[in-house]
Write a structure and sequence with these properties.
It is built from 11 helices and no strands. It is mainly α. The chain has one domain (12-197).
Length: 198
Amino acid sequence: MTAAAIDPGRAQELDDAELITLSLEEPEWFSALFDRHGRRIYDYAARRLGGHAAEDIVAETFFIAFRGRSSYDRTRSMARPWLYGIATNLIARHRRAEERYYRTFQRTGLDPLPEPMADVVVTRVAAQVEERRLAGALRKLSRGDRDVLLLVAWGDLTYEEVAAALDLKVGTVRSRLHRARRKARAALGETDPVKEQM
């Protein structure tokens, strides 16, 4: 089967586990998983490392996922936590770059995701100081706390999905998120960074 022969309508009807199962016999089906989740993984990685590094993270994430797809737990119908877990582990390898990025972001106030020019002007004028403070707060968090906070805020994952992504207990996710929010709130003057990013 060629990629052109994949029925997009059928791909939309299938859950992630079904796509992975089909891809074991016909690898082209895995591209539907990329189409479904690639942009969100990119946005998450871009906010953490910047656009150039995010492209590499997305490519590596889906390459690792493709190679490891036979061991995917197909009782989990949604692969998003699995993909975010892979991406988060790859981001950890780029930790120094991430910390440099946050220092630069704190200093300049420039977000890595491009926005329409009118939105940029209005948003930046109103929020530049807050974004710099947020970047400073994120830079100071431990890696584990930062991963949990950003998977909830930017990855839009539930506690259970974060636990699956990072191979943690839900209670650990809750305590890390609480600690990260408390520290970020203190840096931002009691503004909740998760609610602000949603």
